[in-house]
Amino acid sequence: MSPRLQIDAMVVEHRTKRGVVHAVAGVSLELEAGETLGLVGESGCGKSSLARAIVGLNTPKSGAIRIDGRATDPGRRGAQARAIQMVFQDPYGSLNPRMSVRELVEEPLSVHRLGNRAERAARAKALLERVGISAAMQDRLPHQLSGGQRQRVGIARAMALEPKIVICDEPVSALDVSVQAQVLNLLLDLQKEQELTFLFISHDLEVVRYVSHRIAVMYLGVIVEIGPAEGVWSLPLHPYTRALMQTAGDAERVAATGPMVTLASELPNPLHPPSGCRFRTRCPLAIEVCARDVPALEDFGDGHHVACHRAREWAGTAMPAHA
Amino acid sequence: MMPNASVPRESLLDVEGLSILIKDKRGDVRAVEDVSFSVAAGETLALVGESGAGKSLTALALMRLLPKTLAVEAKRITLAGKDLTSPSELDIRKVRGSIMAMIFQDPLSALNPVLTVERQLVEAIRLHETISRSDARARALELLDMVRIPAAAARLGEYPHRLSGGMRQRVMIAMALAGRPRLILADEPTTALDVTISGQILELLKELQRDLGLGMLFITHDLHVVRSVAHRVAVMYSGRVVESGTVADVFERPRHPYTEGLIQARPHGSFVTDGHRLREIAGTVPVPSARPPGCAFEPRCGRAEADCRQIVPPLVLEPGTARSLACFHPLQQEQYA
What we know:
The complex is a heterodimer.
Chain A: E1 5-16, E2 19-31, E3 36-40, H1 47-55, E4 62-67, E5 70-72, H2 78-83, E6 84-87, H3 91-94, H4 101-111, H5 117-130, H6 147-159, E7 165-169, H7 177-194, E8 197-201, H8 205-211, E9 214-219, E10 222-228, H9 229-234, H10 239-247, H11 251-255, H12 288-292, E11 298-299, E12 305-306, H13 311-315
Chain B: E1 11-22, E2 29-40, E3 44-48, H1 55-63, E4 70-73, E5 76-79, E6 82-83, H2 89-95, E7 100-103, H3 107-110, H4 117-128, H5 133-146, H6 152-155, H7 165-177, E8 183-187, H8 195-212, E9 215-220, H9 223-229, E10 232-237, E11 240-246, H10 247-252, H11 257-265, H12 271-274, H13 306-310, E12 316-317, E13 324-325
Parallel strand pairs in B: 3-9, 3-10, 7-8, 8-9
Antiparallel strand pairs in B: 1-2, 1-4, 1-5, 5-6, 10-11, 11-13, 12-13
Helix pairs in contact in B: 4-5, 4-7, 5-7, 7-8
């Protein structure tokens, strides 16, 4: 059976005054129905460009997007457009400030000419109630809601078209901790009810570990590590993943599974990515070959893939933290 | 390293009964109410809480940088032995920058975009010391070295927008250090940065604090950051401190239901493999003008009883400990597993 979502050799470029930024430089991913793939990386790594290309907001330079084995095009219409929806980081910026909450949820239905007016109103009401916005609040404008309530409206909007795949781009990053838990629980409940596939983008590693079946780590436009969430969490193999995990307040656990990686410098200019391994300019473990050859994603067993010339050196010797 | 409660610390900053009033025709609203804390030299106190808790306002009130529509009231504020309870503009100018300095969340808006790094640093240095331009330039270079900016001499001529977020934050730290302050107020200094850069800045602040013996008031919403930088923590909720103590004590054995709720709301594992649901705190933080009459957390609290609805619980030092608590029905020590 074909995967629910298949991304094949995706390339996204942005033209700027100073040159072409290779935001996504060849990314391939497969997601099953009901699966969550967590995507992590620093700002500028291309994760949002990838997300926007998948949902159809960016036109990729090359590469294919298949839903249940069927190819889509960036200008997709109808059922294919409905199948992939997005939940944004900032629901305030993504909601029309002049529309009531009910109108905001009805809008995608009328754009796609689904149902008559009464049916759309009933559906919007039910959706809003499902995400925890009571009937009394449905006539309010976005600015009259709290951040958490706005994000619930954003989720109801994304769910209105009964998508198969939802791209969650930092959906809880702008929310207070106590409200994050409410929104995460809601997303997971909806996923279970509707067998949704999530591409879950976040810089918060603990949140990503919590929601994801698999985790992919992106650096300067490429995937450097991907694998089962607990595998990547307990035994991060790519030096960049190790550096991220260390900064997540888990230095001791990382130290037990291989070399410590402290990053001294910052992300290089994406207009001129380094030759060979794109991470080598910040990698304290880089050797000669890293400047010459682009490392391929290699299989380390159990679906855990890593693109690093040196990962084998600690992959075999490291003791998993759980053992 | 647990500060011993019985040994009096050399207090650098003492704040007692600080309130911040929002002036309004329909009656004043207290955004921050009756907040007390102290910071010793060489110590970091974290003010932690969600948006609207009043953390940033508290720091701005100490610096007297609040807009005119907000009024500060306090029983007592002392900084390095100086009384700052109701300071004149001159009093505050004498301490601002030279005894206490502030680091802001967004360096791009705190730095002047049309002046080079050198101009801004030299200006800050010469505000506090009578020295020649060339000596000030040497001191500026020294400061950039202190904040570990590589090739510092080349950076002096740069404008803020030419620097990366991490470098800008280092420049702002250098500016804060220009007047040789003894207390740093850091307001979410790493929140806008990527995790790997934020780790570098936190390490830098810790080193500077240790080497210079600085006191630090560190404002953050991130519990990880508190664990990594702070000795003591004060948890704020809706304008008040609800619990304070050493970081280890408060985080390992929280006693206020809000503190416990904050810790429990964070993911601690995997939903996918062990299926545990995150514990929610129902509802949202009340706005200052619509706080309930009793404890502000009462409507969201599972332990609330009749008294919580009527009386605001005062912050009280627990006998024989270094912990203060504002709750009528706290969790018992053994209740937290």
